[in-house]
Write a structure and sequence with these properties.
- It is built from 28 helices and 30 strands.
- The chain is an alpha/beta fold and 779 residues long.
- It folds into 4 domains: 147 residues, no CATH class; 135 residues, no CATH class; 200 residues, Rossmann fold, CATH 3.40.50; 245 residues, P-loop containing nucleotide triphosphate hydrolases (Rossmann fold), CATH 3.40.50.
- Strands 1, 2, 3, 6, 7, 8 and 9 form a 7-stranded mixed beta sheet that branches.
- Strand 12 and strand 13 form a beta hairpin.
- The longest helix has 25 residues.
- The protein is elongated, with a radius of gyration of 35 Å.
- The protein starts with a helix and ends in a 10-residue tail after the last helix.
- The relative contact order is 0.07.
- The N terminus is likely disordered.
Amino acid sequence: MQSSGAALAERAFTAAIRLYSERLLVRSVDALTRSDEETEVAVIQLSFDYDGTCVSASDEQGHFFVAHAGALAKVPRDREREEQVRRILESFGAVELSCLEAYTALPGSKADYLVQLDGNEHAWCSFTAYAVPQLRSLGFRVAIDPDYRYQIVEGEAPWYSHVHADDKPDWFGLELGVEIEGRRVNLMPALLDMLDASHGAASLHSLRNMPARFRAVRVDEQRCIVVAGEHLSKLLEVLIELYHGERSPTLRLEFQALQAASLARLEETMGASFGRLARTGASPIRERGRALAALREEAAADCPQVVTATLRPYQAEGLSWLQRLRVLGVGGVLADDMGLGKTLQTIALLAGEKQAGRATGPSLLLMPTSLVGNWQREIAKFAPSLRVTALHGPNRRSHLAAAWTSDIVLTTYPLLLRDLPIFQDERFYYLVLDEAQVIKNRRSLVTRAVGSLTAEHRLCLTGTPIENSLEELWSIFEFLMPGFLGSAEQFRTRFRQGADLQDSADELAALRARVAPFVLRRMKEQVARELPPKTEIVRPVEISGAQRELYENIRISAHSQVRRAIQKMGLARSTIPILDALMKLRQVCCDPRLVPVDAARGVRKSAKYDCFFELLEQQLEKGRRVLVFSQFTRMLALLSEGMRERNIRHVALTGSTVHRQRPIDDFSEGKADVFLISLKAGGTGLNLTSADTVIHYDPWWNPAAQAQATDRAYRIGQTRPVFVYSLIVAGSVEERMLALQQRKRNLAEAIIGSQRDGPPISTDDLDRLFLPLAGAADV
């Protein structure tokens, strides 16, 4: 019998597996607790077929018996071949269950292997889709249990998208799915589950970083389709642009007509990734989507005949973009870099509307007080045929009758608040906000006031749509197209909290893609290559002696006060004490005479003051003409005193200047060599290309504000190289502010430019700002 058994061992040998789902007991043990939890997993029952006799892999016997020639024959198992089969199976990610202490089969289970030790639905479906066919090709007999929950739809399942008109005006519902056996299966709920499971775009990050190459999308309780991870992540990247985070009972994704550009990108992405795509339903919104997606395509428009200017190529393209916004009935943000002619492009737009006979009434232009005169001069210069009324000054109401019959009405944000009922009673053709960052605070009175006005078209002009926070962008778009970025709470939850994290590139990309058609931004380096070079120089200043001691004393006291404020009220509600403490430190850096504390009265020496006049005299000896900016009007007064002592010709512009145009004209006509300007009063709206040197006496939080100030000199019309100096006290709060400036710049560029990061100020940032005074090398 032994000899016959040995002979039988040479009979045909086949490995067989059965895939099924089973609930296993998962044991997790840590230092404090031990917990047992049942969970459903994909498992394998492995058996070896010796010419019709099946032996379970879990059977530990080294032999089995078969009937042969009227007797029982003992057949030895081929352990070497069985081990080879095990290694093949394990190479596909199966793990022997007996080797896992954390998993224990329920009583009666015949499971031998667990599919993927780190498995999940994606891994299990990938095993079914890609491991099973290969195992079969190697000779495995594979049986799949009917109740197995990770079966794969066989054959090609073509995708479809269907758009439904929603009950809400200008809203639509989107289905995405596949056609299986002649039936459409809506996969939108499963796709949204993927986004919700990982808090929106964070799931895209996990999709790209999970080890499994393929991802599963569930079709029904037992079946999935598998999609290449690269293709699925591209689909979700666009899908998240449309998703507001709220589910519809119709099992569709609801989106606004204003988001149709994202719909066009979604279908383009799907067509490229999934091949044949059936598009059905609501063809007008699809066409609108393609038009919105093409808004940013470069196309030059002819300058209206009534405009006495030759538009540069990028300005003609900007005019075309503005005109397409009007045709599509949407608002937009002309966010060109400072000095590239946003004013001229807007004048050309309004002049063209009148020339074409489309203007149905006056257009209202709102602006800071300092810009009224500039707009009057620019319109008179470039479009003299336009009738303009400036509602400005104490006698403005006497011009109301003329205003409503004019082509353009100019007024200021402060005066709008005073005269709001008058403006609310009118309907304007265009409502244009210059320096639109004024409405960045959604709760401010001026933001609410401009939102209450009625106009056929709305437009924002600003080189800085984001200065400090993404919520500023929400406020601007809420004015342009209410509801486009969701409610303030939805936006804050999704974008501000998400986009302020360093690993939130996907959230920023989604926001950027959503607003991209409606924001046009060009930089000088891109479109005004004829501009002369600009050289930016940071000039560190070392302080010592009494000034250094004063800085350290104030720093210690201020940091302690700030810590107590944060402990009591939290970071968000401690803005005032934080800014007050930092301002005192900045004042010490500028000049101790600015600091309103007793300890500063005896400190007369300022290292930065001395450095400034040394630098200034060097520039004047070279024949340069200089703009000097500071946040502190008292500092400008001290500099003015120093210039009078040195017989330096200069003029000044601050918020208290009565005749604003006079110092501007005096400097432009060469009657002064130095122009002292407060950043608030003169950081925007000035054209001072007769200057070729800019000195920032003290840095400011907002890099955009400093850039705007610099661009009073560095703009179209400048023919000489421009030198920009920033004076900072080495190792002080000023030097550390430069790093924060860059991070704020990155936040803005993540949406309207090309960068993708930029977290806000944190308690760690504050602690760093209040570090002891150090040399530049220590920072």
